[in-house]
Design the sequence.
């Protein structure tokens, strides 16, 4: 029987809890040890799952013999400290996006990870998600005909209301906001499909108070001859929109609602999700499949820290309202 790898969880906020819940259902990974600075949340998580143990602190979690890989789901400003500690202990690490905020700090982390030879990855959705696989296949098979443009449309008032309440640090400009938390997934998808992205222009709508996260973004990226138009906002009332579209001459593909896939040949959009499962469940299964492959030493599709650094450069340039 294939090994089932033990995962140590640093951070038990909403993202950490979702990854924890889905890990129980996977055949190749299992949650073993958890830690969070909020003692009540840590205690409640362990109380709800007798198989889990609470670590005294981050260092004890990293060194625990039941931990084969450490998943970092704490706020971005803590990523480098935790990831460097995991690598120094000789253990693989899966880090939430973004890799970090400060470019110099993330450059040093990416170099440390690369030179260590230790397995490491960033938890971007499109490292394994079905829509990314299908888009890559469609491009390789020239299904689009001539590719005309790419477009990101984000309208996230309900996401902001929910996520900012779950994680108040997301409301601040120093490490939060929808650009880092949501748009970064689509920047990664763009770079996975088309190579390094350049920022042509960016305009940000400031937050409601000094130091708060921006509330809107209009921007343009380019990858070679491909133009990527971006519109995003957390303002107003209405259903959330979270779409990424590749507009082709013969057909177009759209990531719909972050996890779903839709295709059109000129009329209505038609759902084209993986059969037999819902898109969110399918993604978690695929992501943990890739984690297991990485730990097995087999080929996998998860982005490394260098890829995370590339995305971070684009994101932080967008937030500065500048160009590279």
Sequence:
């Amino acid at each position: 029987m294939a090994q089932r790898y033990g995962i140590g969880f640093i951070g038990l906020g909403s993202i950490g809890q979702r990854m924890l819940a889905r890990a129980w259902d996977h055949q190749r990974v299992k949650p073993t040890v958890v830690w969070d600075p909020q003692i009540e949340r840590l205690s409640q998580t362990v109380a709800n799952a007798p198989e889990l143990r609470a670590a005294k602190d981050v260092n004890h979690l990293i060194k625990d013999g039941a931990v084969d890989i450490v998943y970092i789901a704490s706020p971005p400003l803590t990523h480098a400290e935790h990831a460097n500690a995991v690598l120094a202990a000789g253990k693989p690490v899966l880090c939430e996006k973004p890799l970090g905020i400060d470019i110099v700090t993330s450059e040093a982390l990416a170099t440390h990870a690369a030179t260590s030879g230790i397995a490491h990855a960033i938890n971007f959705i499109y490292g394994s998600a079905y829509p990314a696989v299908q888009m890559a296949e469609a491009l390789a098979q020239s299904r689009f005909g001539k590719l005309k443009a790419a477009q990101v449309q984000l309208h996230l008032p309900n996401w902001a209301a929910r996520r900012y309440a779950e994680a108040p640090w997301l409301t601040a400009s120093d490490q939060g906001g929808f650009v880092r938390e949501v748009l970064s997934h689509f920047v990664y998808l763009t770079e996975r499909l088309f190579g390094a992205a350049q920022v042509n222009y960016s305009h940000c709508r400031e937050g409601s108070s000094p130091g708060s996260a921006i509330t809107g973004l209009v921007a343009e990226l380019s990858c070679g001859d491909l133009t990527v138009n971006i519109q995003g906002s957390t303002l107003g009332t209405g259903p959330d929109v979270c779409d990424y579209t590749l507009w082709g001459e013969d057909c177009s593909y759209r990531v719909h609602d972050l996890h779903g896939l839709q295709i059109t040949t000129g009329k209505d959009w038609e759902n084209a999700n993986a059969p037999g499962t819902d898109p969110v469940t399918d993604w978690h299964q695929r992501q943990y499949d890739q984690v297991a492959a990485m730990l097995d030493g087999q080929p996998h599709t998860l982005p490394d820290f260098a890829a995370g650094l590339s995305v971070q450069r684009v994101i932080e340039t967008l937030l500065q309202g500048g160009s590279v």
Notes: DSSP finds ten helices and 14 strands in the chain. The chain has two domains: 5-124, 126-275+305-320. Residues 279-296 form the longest helix (18 residues).
